[in-house]
Design brief:
By secondary structure, the chain is an alpha+beta fold. The chain is built from 20 helices and 34 strands. A hairpin with a 6-residue loop joins strand 12 and strand 13. It starts with a strand and ends with a strand. The structure holds beta-D-glucopyranose.
């Protein structure tokens, strides 16, 4: 755990240059606008430790699978979100001496991520080897008002010298991913051009043939005036620059503006990329930095207006939750149904930028409550569009008759994860995809979704489970062997309780969906059934038999569900008795030691109790929580939030708070020692849930919205807004009670604790 960032309600502040933490800061201070984003790499050359990262939504490369021992069924490739052309770079050369903070004495270094306004700023004084001292003030943003553009304002001041200076803003497509299977470069050159003040680059990804046009125009301001720059242009394959030769005097400040546009073939025909990019750059330059910044800030103000959570009396908690909301909003805007939420967003390469079960299990509730319901619907439709690929994926693995196995990791619907214990065995992901439909409908009441898309997908998933179980004679029950549950620190286990439970739930929910669609639109049902060759009676009879006779491992003495068969044969030593130097165990222990141990990476049985809370009484939840949480190392970022919600549910508020802080500040405090790889974007939605579903106790059950609010003793109060069925509600909890205000929409009856509350006007109601 690290504690080098200053606490502030709206800003992330790093004071003092920490080269050892540079990769961590590069992740934390990342910017994005849903369309593209980047790590907080310096504009000027930096020869110290850095992970260069610029990313474009939906642009990936299918890196040929590399494994030690090929296993039939492995996908051909692992999709990688690509490190895209670098558009931030500005080389600074003072009379032949390059500015590079790795070779300077750096003082007064401050890096600020202004979350309210979506702006990254950096100031410092650098003493170069020659003794020259410069002051730098860099400021940049990726516009969310116009997601085609980004701007940089880079000011440099001479403190103790007067010398010739060369400023070289550039675009560089000759970039690499650190994470490549064959050390290949993924970009091909298509076109470069540069003039005295602008440059354009078109590059194309190998194999996938996505094209991107990256363009820039440059202005230099000296003593308040735009100077005639007459830059020297230079291009080579995948690279274009404009070198501006001028001079700088003692105490003089020079400001470079870089107006940038990124346009990809995902949104425009390849033949138009250059024209569109040039237009955007031209428009941006004419509008000017300050106005673009104002538009961008206004757009952020709107986002905050809808999604902010205010926590009073606890700056660390406030900063934590805002950081999470900020990152979620800059990663996914919901405007493009082809896009999804990569576990690292635009902050790093790890996890390939692809879609995981994280979206359905963790992110949907955040977008359901903080955005128009079409955003969550888009995320569901994304999976529906991949249904045929999920069927192909299952067919490759030997399943038949339209059974669908969704991929663990995907860019375009194809599986692209290639570790056998996850690819083949972590099949519970299919359950989360079905659950998200249920969750969406429960929240929005948009049951028509079942007719339009849901039922067909649920049948595919049900068919998979029906073929994946087998009947055990000795047990006289159906069983599921050879799986990895959500806890990836166990592989190839039999009868993982969570997987068995969600499999049965999927079968039941698919049958519910079938009945619903039949009752609403029999013709539509028949046409889907004919198209997918669905033999209702035969198939559902088999599903019912599985539902009736599924095996669930339990321990009668402890009265708990067993994570998998024979779990209690393990040596059970709580995590608190593990020496600190052994943690995180995934970095300190051999894999076999982890597998044999009782330690749990993330909620597994508890994930099931969280999803299906209504099916269990509170004592059952308590017993399981108290058994499993002490064995959980929370080494997946997705773990603490589920525990925070359940702990609040059972009234263990200290634990809930501990878990909340851990999820909210996971990256800021680098709890799991891996923020350098990028931030844990998908788990950030879990942090939001920890507040709203955990402390706020928000639920939707029996068609009614309810809250069981709790005010953590560390806070003076907190408030959040949610969208619910065309209403906008504000919920504020403080020492005087819970105040609910309906800001938009017609009357609504909700429940607060056990009391029914009718929300009629717009005045806050104290409950
Ligand atoms: C977790 C998975 C998760 C993945 C991406 C892993 O560490 O165990 O549950 O899907 O990270 O976030």
């Amino acid at each position: 755990m690290k504690d080098y960032l200053k606490k502030d309600e709206w800003k992330i502040i790093e004071e003092g240059f920490n080269p050892n933490y540079n990769r961590i800061s590069e992740s934390i201070f990342s910017l994005g606008n849903g369309r593209f984003g980047q790590r907080a790499n310096f504009e000027e050359t930096y020869s110290g430790d850095t992970l260069q990262g610029h990313y474009l939504a939906g642009i990936y490369y299918p890196d040929k699978t590399r494994v030690g021992w090929w296993k039939n069924g492995y996908p051909e490739y692992f999709a990688k979100v690509l490190n895209a052309p670098n558009w931030t770079g500005i080389k600074i050369d003072i009379d032949g001496e390059e500015l590079d903070l790795a070779n300077c004495e750096v003082n007064d270094f401050v890096r600020i991520l202004d979350m309210k306004n979506g702006v990254l700023e950096r100031t410092c004084t650098a003493k170069m080897k020659s003794g020259r001292i410069v002051k730098i003030h860099a400021k940049r943003f990726c516009s969310i008002a116009n997601d085609n553009i980004a701007c940089i304002r880079y000011a440099i001041k001479a403190v103790n010298f007067s010398d010739p200076i060369q400023l070289t803003p550039f675009l560089d497509g000759d970039v690499i991913n650190e994470d490549t299977n064959y050390d290949e470069k993924f970009w091909e050159p298509i076109h470069e051009e540069a003039t005295e003040n602008e440059a354009y680059l078109i590059t194309e990804t190998k194999k996938t043939e996505f094209q991107v046009c990256t363009g820039m125009r440059v202005q230099v301001v000296k003593n308040g005036d735009i100077i005639d720059i007459d830059g020297k242009s230079f291009t080579k394959d995948k690279y274009a620059e404009v070198a501006i030769n001028t001079s700088i005097k003692d105490e003089e400040e020079m400001v470079i503006y870089k107006y940038v546009s990124n346009i990809t073939s995902e949104n425009h025909p390849k033949s138009n990329l250059l024209t569109v990019c040039k237009n955007e750059v031209e428009k941006a330059t004419t509008t000017g930095f300050e106005q673009l910044l104002t538009d961008h800030q206004n757009a952020w103000a709107k986002k905050w207006e809808e999604s902010d959570i205010i926590i009073k009396g606890d700056v660390a908690a406030q900063q934590g939750i805002r950081f999470n909301i900020f990152q979620l909003n800059q990663t996914y805007t919901g405007e493009d149904e082809r896009l999804n939420i990569g576990p690292k967003g635009f902050t790093g390469e790890k996890y390939g930028g692809s879609t995981y079960w994280d979206t359905e299990a963790y992110c949907i509730p955040f977008y359901l409550s903080t955005a128009d319901q079409r955003v969550a619907r888009n995320l569901l439709v994304y999976r529906f569009k991949h249904l045929q690929k999920a069927i192909e994926n299952a067919t490759k693995l030997g399943f038949k008759n339209g059974a669908a196995l969704y991929p663990m990791v995907t860019m375009n619907g194809e599986e692209c994860h290639n570790e056998w214990e996850i690819t083949f065995e972590e099949i519970h992901r299919n359950g989360a995809i079905a659950y998200a439909i249920f969750d969406y409908i429960r929240y929005t009441n948009d049951e028509a979704y079942l007719t339009e898309y849901g039922m067909e997908l649920l049948v595919g998933i049900a068919r998979f489970w029906a073929q994946r179980v087998h009947f055990s004679k000795p047990k006289n029950k159906y069983v599921i062997h050879g799986v990895t549950g959500p806890n990836e620190y166990e592989n190839n286990v039999n009868n993982n309780w969570y997987t068995n439970f969600i499999a049965v739930w999927c079968l039941k929910y698919a049958m519910y969906a079938i009945d619903y669609v039949k009752s609403q639109n029999a013709t539509q049902f028949q046409s889907i059934a004919d198209r997918i060759k669905f033999y209702e009676v035969t198939e559902t009879n088999q599903w019912k038999d599985i539902v009736d006779k599924m095996y669930f491992p339990v321990d009668q003495e402890l009265q708990i569900f067993l994570q998998q068969e024979n779990f209690l044969d393990k040596e059970i030593i709580p995590v608190k008795d593990l020496p600190a130097e052994d943690r995180p165990i995934h970095q300190k222990w051999s894999w076999d030691r982890i597998l044999r141990s009782c330690y749990i990476k993330q909620a597994d049985v508890l994930q099931g109790l969280y999803f299906f809370e209504d099916a269990f009484d509170i004592d059952t939840i308590k017993r399981n929580f108290r058994f499993y949480e002490p064995l959980t190392v929370h080494e997946s970022s997705l773990s603490p939030c589920v525990h925070a919600i359940l702990a609040a549910k059972i009234g263990d508020y200290e634990k809930a708070y501990e878990m909340y802080l851990r999820t909210a500040r996971l990256d800021l405090d680098d709890y799991n020692n891996d923020t350098e790889d990028g931030c844990h974007i998908t788990s950030m939605a879990g942090t939001w849930m920890a507040v709203v579903k955990g402390f706020g106790g928000m639920r939707v059950a029996d068609d009614q919205l309810s809250f069981t609010p709790h005010l953590p003793s560390q806070w003076k109060g907190y408030s959040f807004k949610i969208r619910f069925r065309n209403r906008l509600l504000k919920i504020s909890i403080d020492t005087s009670g819970t105040h609910i205000q309906k800001l938009e929409g017609v009357d609504l009856k909700i429940k607060v604790n056990t009391k029914e509350v009718q929300l009629v006007g717009e005045d806050p109601i104290l409950c």
